[in-house]
Amino acid sequence: MHVFVTGGTGTIGSAVVAELLGDGHTVLALARSDASEQTLKEAGAEVLRGELADLDVLRAGVAQSDGVISLAFGRDYSNPDVLAAAIAEESAAMATLGEELTSSDRPIVTVSGTPWVPGRASTEADPLPTDGPVGGRGRSVNALLELASRGVRATAVRMPRTVHNEGKGGFAGLLADQARRTGVAGYPGDGTQRWPAVHALDAAVLFRLALESAPAGTSWHAVADEGDAVRDIATVIGRRLGLPVEAVSEGAFGPFGPIFAMDQPASSAHTRDVLGWQPAHPSLLEDLENVQP
């Protein structure tokens, strides 16, 4: 396939572009800067210049493609106003991409997060939250999946809170950054709460599998590690950075505190059984051995 990719230079996106090219697909990737364009061209992708907010550019990308993988999203989660604007931009972009694919039976794969379910690991059958600060993302993903009834093979890959590579990325990466700033490898609560995780290269394989064969209207979990205790994550970070490991208040993590304190494991049993996805890269705790001072 000739695949149109947005967000192709991020932790997930760069791995997805490499996975697609390595498996014989070709890639047309959206680039908003000279640096992004250069990175994508060096990876072997064709480039379409523009921003995610440039809806006409997105339409042009769809017109040139056999399928779409939509990954672009703002990175500032700490400012509520900026986050709301990023969600609105993403929602408009996904609506435009989906509309352009209507009645074509072409695939589009989008990204969301694994849901939180009290008392157990979430599964692919659990609904995304549609309220709260990020509820708009859940609503836009649901709207895209509903296009299955209009001739769009729309699917969603749900990502855990930590997508890692070489000891960097996700919630675990934020813990490491906080430890460097404060001199303490801290964790909120008693540290028994669990975070799911996946290596970026394994996640990329799942995006490809979903693009190639997932049925319309379906959701999949890119979860390699169902849930590592946050205290265990902090322990590895502390050892690698030579810092003490201690419980700290939720407030020390700012707006992330309440989320960091949640027990939020997730399962990918259905994804593995149906799509044959088998993570093969290092687990989170193994990959954190790459954390550098």
UniProtKB/TrEMBL annotation:
InterPro entries: Epimerase_deHydtase, NAD(P)-bd_dom_sf, NAD(P)-dependent_oxidoreduct. Residues 108-136 are annotated as: Disordered. It comes from the Bacteria. SUPFAM superfamilies: NAD(P)-binding Rossmann-fold domains. Residues 3-215 form the NAD-dependent epimerase/dehydratase domain. CDD domains: SDR_a7. This is SDR family oxidoreductase.
